[in-house]
Fold this protein.
Amino acid sequence: MMATAGKRTNWFAIWVSVAVVAVVVVAGVAVVLINNAASNPDPGPAPEAAIVNTETGAISVGDGPDVVATYIDFMCPICNQFEGIYAETLNDLVADGSITLEYHPVAILDNQSQGTQFSTRAANALYCVATTTPEAVTPFVSAMYANQPSEGTTGLSDDEIISIATDAGAADAASCITDRTYEGFVGERTQAMPTTADGGRGTPTVTFNGERIDLTGDPQVDIIDRLS
């Protein structure tokens, strides 16, 4: 067990190092998003649901006293690495009442999907699932990562995303996904996500009770040891 954990930490550190190199690119994407928002100030409807905070964009699962917030882009390969390493721990802590897990779906990698805006469409889909079938949120997130497209491809089509949502139990989200109901809201929340010291944005960004975590790749150190 300890040897495996050590290997995971090393691989995660490598991925994080690669992510640092990409910060300049991400910052450039953020500038584009900000410029687009300036020309279209109306973000459109907010996702109304008991588990969605329309001010922060958080989709909350569980009701534990400590809050772990994750800012994720479904095109982001490092987010998938994070899912593989941390999801079991986070889901267990939700189940035993230790934490509230917040998903913040954002779109910083639309430029990696050949113009199809996969990141925005996928983030919109998570809000659609949250508003129609709250219990399907975690299964949908897991399935989206299991079917994650590679950067530089067109990503998943709307029909493919709908199929994943349906398999997760959220068939009622289909029209919302097709209509891209919360596309504007996704753009607004992407601009508002936490930034690094130099103003860049990257995923995954994780906070514990509002404090940003410098991930080590070890759920024990990063999450469990911080619990109240």
User: Anything to note?
Assistant: Residues 2-21 form the longest helix (20 residues).
